[in-house]
Amino acid sequence: MNETKDCCPKFDPQPWQQVTHQWTDKLFITETIPQFLHMPLPLMYAKAVSRMWKKAQDMGIAPDIKDFLLLAYDPSPWKSELYIAVKKDAPGANAVRLSGTYVSMVFDGPYSGVPKYIKEMERYLDTMKQKSKKYYFYYTTCPKCAKKYGHNYIVALCEV
Question: Residue 148's domain is classified under what CATH number?
């Protein structure tokens, strides 16, 4: 993404708050980055996102910025998988497709609150008689834009 004054669009939490999403072959490009005890290394994270976004733009597969979706999944304390939603498949893109039922919930707070957000999400899933299979997190804005907008929205997206 660009580093201009308006780099991240203002996030609307309503379409993500306690919503069930049904995805069939939702297309993403992906990249893996190292992290330390589930904490992303800020410089590596920023470079990976910028690199992925530029690749999507250069290949003509990037969505409109208003449809930008970046998911993070941590398979271990030492690595994170990043996923950027794209419009179509392209040769040379490290693409994956996600299918299934996902429940989302929006939180407004620091990255360090993720364990608390997971517990709250688990309580919500219990009310729906659902069990979590896998968690993704959608960090809706960069730190500068979160400060500018006065909100650090994080969406927990749980495959059920």
Answer: 3.20.80.10
